[in-house]
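Quick review question:
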């Protein structure tokens, strides 16, 4: 196992998720869209990487596949992929911050 030091500049897990462009950045007031709210802020390469990771997770992880199918049944496939990529980004943050191994049982409450 490779050990490395990571210095975090993100105060909260949501800040990292937002930086990775895994969450929607829009401002609503009374159900009406008011602004895009800096939707291009963040790292577009991390956004791409987490979407790719979500696609591979759907193929190779039964827990991720079940999560994706549940979300896709609620909304649509694109929203489900972004939801899974957000979940993976949040898990990556916790793995790097706490220096613990990845546990899909914790991530998907299996």
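Suggested answer, residue by residue:
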């Amino acid at each position: 196992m490779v050990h490395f030091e990571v210095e975090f500049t993100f105060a909260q897990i949501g800040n990292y998720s937002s930086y990775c462009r895994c969450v929607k950045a829009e401002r609503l007031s009374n159900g009406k869209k008011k602004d895009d709210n800096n939707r291009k802020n963040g790292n577009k390469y991390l956004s791409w990487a987490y979407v790719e990771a979500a696609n591979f997770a759907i193929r190779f992880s039964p827990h991720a596949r079940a999560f994706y199918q549940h979300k896709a049944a609620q909304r649509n496939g694109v929203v489900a992929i972004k939801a899974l990529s957000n979940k993976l980004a949040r898990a990556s943050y916790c793995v790097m911050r706490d220096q613990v191994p990845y546990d899909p049982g914790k991530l998907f409450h299996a």
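Why it works: The first strand starts at residue 27 and ends at 29. Strands lie at 27-29, 32-35.
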